[in-house]
Amino acid sequence: MTNYLPLMEAAARSAGAAILEVYAEDDFGVETKGDDSPLTRADLAAHRIILAALEAGASDVPVLSEESTDVTYEERSTWEKYFLVDPLDGTKEFINRNGEFTVNIAYIEFGVPVQGVVYVPVKDVLYEGDQLNSTGARVTRDGQSEPIKARVLESTSSLTIVASRRHGGDALEKCLEVLRQHFDEIDTTNMGSSLKLCLVAEGKADLYPRLAPTSEWDTAAAQAVVEAAGGQVVDVSLNTLRYNAKEDILNPFFYVISDPSFDWKRVLSQVEIG
Hints:
Layout: H1 5-23, E1 31-32, E2 38-39, H2 41-57, E3 63-65, H3 73-76, E4 81-89, H4 91-95, E5 102-109, E6 112-120, E7 125-130, E8 136-141, E9 144-148, E10 158-164, H5 169-180, E11 185-191, H6 195-201, E12 207-210, H7 216-228, E13 232-235, E14 254-257, H8 264-268
Parallel strand pairs: 3-4, 10-11
Antiparallel strand pairs: 1-2, 4-5, 5-6, 6-7, 7-8, 8-9, 12-14, 13-14
Helix pairs in contact: 1-2, 6-7
């Protein structure tokens, strides 16, 4: 039985410790990458630690990290299994010192994120999901691990939405306008990084509409957690997100839903995209 979760958890925690060392300093060594996104010494330190740990523990499985610079699509298109890593998801939140950043490590087979770890260094909270061995999703806090489940949407009286702290704009507002027509009350929480997906997995939110760009390493680990908890991550046509199927690493716009049995097609098909 394949189980990379212990390896991924150890790597994420080691990376988190290195991130917190930089977080405690005055100078993060901020640079700007080619896509205008920020890069810090913490991103690079976490990247190096995770790659070394995965290479030592699973040398036969290739790795694609956000900070990888030498992996072509020609090479990775042949991968049937691989690790997909965001060493520091939420770099802007890190720079702003609000604690809403994570370490994301996913194990992917045939385009499906079957195992995932999302670690929150500031709070020492770790989410994990395992679809490979059907053991479900868990969260570990204060040294105590417990199972988590995405919640059932039992009525249209209320809806809890989690939204990006920095993205959304007009597209999100159009989505909210549609949702207000179907739900009596809507409660919205704004948050950074992949923590938004984890809130859905943990049963604390019903929907996360992401109608702005993301990359595959931003979502894969948390998608594994969401789906192991019983939720789904789907594009705007309600097809499940899949990975490494194209040269472009960008995700389509997507929704994270807690209850796949709810008639989301009836509601979300009314949202105008683009």
